[in-house]
Amino acid sequence: MKKRLLFLSLFLILLTSAGKSVAAVSMTLEQYIREILLNNHSLRAGVKSVEADYYSVLSAVGTQRPALAATAGGNWVSHQGNESGYTAANLGLALTHRIDISGKYSLDERQRILGYEVSRAKFDANLNTLISTAEQTWWSAVLARENVRLQKEVLTQRSENHRVTMEKYRQELVPRLDIVRSEAQVVQAESQVKEAETTYQNLLANLSFLAGGMDVEPEEQELRVPEFDVEVNYDDALAFRPDVRSARLSVERAKLVKKLTARGLSPTLDFSAQWTAWSDPETTNSVPKKGEAAAGLSLKLPIFDGHQTKYGVLNADRLIQSAESSLESLKEQTRRDIAVALNNWKNASAVEVDRKRQVERAKEELHITELMYSEGMGAQIDLINAQVSYRSVSTEYLAAVRDMYVALVELRQAMGDYAPDEDGTWREAVTRYGKGNDILGEVGLKSLRDPRIQLEEKDSAKKAGSDIVPAVKPFGVPPASREEVAEIKASLQKIYQERGIE
Description:
Layout: H1 2-19, E1 25-27, H2 29-39, H3 41-60, E2 67-80, E3 83-99, H4 104-170, H5 176-210, E4 216-218, H6 234-240, H7 242-262, E5 268-280, E6 293-300, H8 308-374, H9 380-414, H10 428-431, H11 451-463, H12 482-499
Parallel strand pairs: 1-4
Antiparallel strand pairs: 2-3, 3-5, 5-6
Helix pairs in contact: 3-4, 4-5, 4-7, 4-9, 7-8, 8-9
């Protein structure tokens, strides 16, 4: 019996230990953002999706190249002339290729490459949103923790006041009504503490979700009022925001698709060549015969395709109009996002100044009221009002500080500062967290922009007298200058060293 009880006790202890949650990891904002870049599951899924699109382009353009295949054939018939059980076989090589005589190959390649670039830009847009959401959640959690401390401080004050009221009641200095009031204030404070703790725990759950399931909490640090440190420029926002870049590339791609569709009735020229390496018997009817080669051309001139090209062009034209309207809408959205974030900052910063003064006055008023009440010179209702006023303005002050942080994050998001540029260079907001190069994946810095497009950009830049022109690299990183190339190489080398990659 004793052994059973001992076993049951040990089992309950182990079960209780297993049920306890793992302690949250305390980290700084920089460490938290890095954790997201490494372990966020939706981010990893986006990386793999971009990589899939990259290899999809390489696979699709393979159909534009010649195809080589080994051929083998054999047959058996019961009677062939005077022979019975006649067999014949042959081996050879066949080369086929559709020659591009209408320019469709180059258009198709360019539109596929732009499709990949659109996918990459959409991923960057999601990244811009993800990191800004993470930072907003982080600062909200920091301020929520401060609010928990504030509510606990209020609870301590009201518990002490209730103790003083109880002592006065025992001395018959105050009526029973004062005890009821002070006790109600304690219950209310306890409820507010629980509400604040629930809000904080929910924010921690969101932080954990964004970090890929790791339980994290903001590191203890001095709470400071943020300063305005964002360079706001509408033209820069249009140049750097990845969603605007995606819309701009979509317009360019839609125009190429229309040109490609318009060539639906273009003639096609197919080339084929075949060589027979072996045949048995040599007198077989295979063409070409053993040791011989043959080549041929086939020209096809489409005449009517059931209006497929006609309506395909109309469809492509409407898609161009849709893409252009989406681009204009995003431009206006960018202007709105910047204006709203600036207004939120101005309002939050003004409220912070006002609430700070109110907190100082409310704190002094509460201190004086508490002294008067403890000395029997003040009414309890005055003490309750002072406590409510102090708690209210203190909570509003924390909310104003949080709104200042959120407004700054919204501004950085509106400027596209949480995502890399088109050439893979990270913007300032992520540079603060170690450039974010950990999420590059296999092809994160690779661009497939057609060299002819880049040559056109280079020529136009030269005509404009620009000193910085994009490099022409069809399957590499197209940086804007040698300095940026060196910076990217240095950052990649650092990552390789950290991961032990040669």
